[in-house]
Write a structure and sequence with these properties.
By secondary structure, the protein is α/β, with parallel strands linked by helices. It has 2 domains: about 15-35 and about 300-395, Aspartate Aminotransferase, domain 1 (Alpha-Beta Complex), CATH 3.90.1150.10; about 45-300, Type I PLP-dependent aspartate aminotransferase-like (Major domain) (Aspartate Aminotransferase, domain 2), CATH 3.40.640. Helix content is about 35%, strand content about 15%. The protein is built from 12 helices and 13 strands. The strands form 3 sheets. Strands 2-8-7-6-5-3-4 form a 7-stranded mixed beta sheet, with helices on both faces. A 4-stranded antiparallel beta sheet has the order 9-10-13-12, with helices on one face. The longest helix has 17 residues, at about 60-75. The protein is globular, with a radius of gyration of 22 Å. About 45% of the residues are buried. GO terms for molecular function: transaminase activity.
Length: about 400
């Protein structure tokens, strides 16, 4: 289990190279690299500019530490259950490819999704549903405030004996509303449904306990709250995926594949557990050291302390913005709002894209999503960033 350091974090701006005068409250779009991650990338480039002396085991060793670090971050006892993936769509495609192998799967069952989910968590089922005779049940966001408690109750009510699979994130990617994953996991197990979690917008900044949730799959892109490079992600695949069907037949995923002098002795046996689901060329000589550095830094900072920092950072801003007619989900434990990603609903008269552009013109970066602004701070942000945000919104909305 990840140890908890109760000390409050201070701003870590000095560990990043963001330019002066830029107010980047947009980690949910892409995290900036820390200096530590930058250095790891430069060092890897220098090292691999000359491939002389490269050993077979070097194709495999880089991912070992990353699996261990990610496992520590999510409280996974078995790093061999972690696969290296290029994207969330790839990770969800593994789930879709193996859904036909689920015990008891039958036509007429359904897959439960939350409304307005990220496309990679929706498109994955377009092919498998007609093939297996399944339908989609979408649990839409409630209209009235507060939304989180009602949304969670509706989600739990939608999971029943006819549910084959539940796909849910720790928080909604647009609004930052949390889902009670422990309750969802328990309900899924009660009815015999698989549970797949897209942790991209939470893991790394919000505590996640795999042992408590007990999902079948956890899929996470690396370039947001894991603070790593693009096109590199991680996925946990539980025992239901043992002996499953991978998306591709990569040679590295087979037993004894580090014995290059014997590669022509074709090996039918896969390496253990989640290894078969690794993307081809998963070594990522340049990117893997960057992800390792990012994960090491996150474990030092700790997600719980990142939550505490971002909560304190924005606490004084919310009352003034609400007086301007904005609305946000209240705090309500694991059924309320997160603090690293907050959806701020704008007044009816305000156009979100116009507001976003006004912010961008004054060097404040957030994202417009539907009727809300998605505000996503991290440890590199300070009160000056929040003050700039409030100043522009006050000018635009008053």
């Amino acid at each position: 289990m990840l140890a908890t350091d109760v000390r409050l974090l201070t701003a870590q701006t000095h560990l990043f190279t963001l330019p002066e005068g830029i107010h980047y409250l947009n980690c949910a779009t892409r995290a900036p690299f820390s200096k530590m991650v930058e250095k790891a990338g430069h060092d890897a480039l220098d090292h691999h500019a000359n491939p002389f002396g490269l050993r077979p085991d070097d194709f495999f060793s880089g991912a070992v530490r990353v699996r261990e670090l990610f496992s520590e971050l999510i409280n996974n006892a078995d790093p061999e259950r972690i696969a290296i993936i290029p994207s969330v769509s790839y990770g969800m495609a593994v789930v879709a490819r193996n859904l036909e192998r689920k015990p008891g799967i039958r036509p007429g069952q359904h897959i439960v999704l939350v409304g307005s989910e990220f496309p990679s968590d929706v498109y994955a089922w377009d092919r498998v549903c007609p093939e297996l005779g399944l339908t989609i049940t979408t649990v839409s966001i409630p209209n009235a405030f507060p939304k989180g408690a009602v949304w969670n109750e509706r989600l739990l009510e939608a999971i029943g004996p006819e549910t084959a699979l539940v796909v849910v994130p720790p928080i909604h990617w647009m609004y930052g509303i949390r889902f009670d994953l422990e309750a969802v996991g328990q309900r899924a197990r009660e009815v015999g449904a698989w549970l797949a979690i897209d942790g991209t917008q939470a893991i790394g900044a919000l505590p996640f306990d795999l042992a408590a949730v007990q999902p079948d799959a956890v899929i996470c892109a690396g370039y947001k709250w894991l603070m790593g490079p693009y096109s590199l992600g991680l996925a946990y695949y539980g025992p239901v995926f043992d002996d499953g069907i991978p998306l591709e037949e990569g040679w590295m995923n087979r037993l004894d594949s580090n014995q290059f002098h014997r590669l022509m002795d074709y090996q039918p046996t896969y390496r253990a557990k989640a290894y078969r689901y690794n993307v081809g060329e998963h070594t990522h000589f340049l990117q893997m050291p960057m992800l390792e550095a990012a994960l090491s830094q996150l474990l030092e900072w700790q997600p719980e302390r990142i939550q505490d920092y971002t909560k304190a950072l924005l606490a004084d801003a919310w009352p003034g913005l609400e007086r301007l007619g904005c609305r946000l989900e209240p705090e309500n434990g694991n059924r309320g709002r997160s603090h690293h990603l907050v959806g701020l609903w704008l007044p009816d008269h305000a156009d979100p894209m116009t507001v976003q552009q006004a912010l961008q013109s004054r060097n404040v970066s957030v994202s417009a999503r539907a009727r809300a602004l998605r505000i996503a701070p991290h440890l590199y942000n300070t009160s000056s960033d929040v003050e700039a945000l409030v100043e522009v919104l006050t000018d635009v909305l008053k």
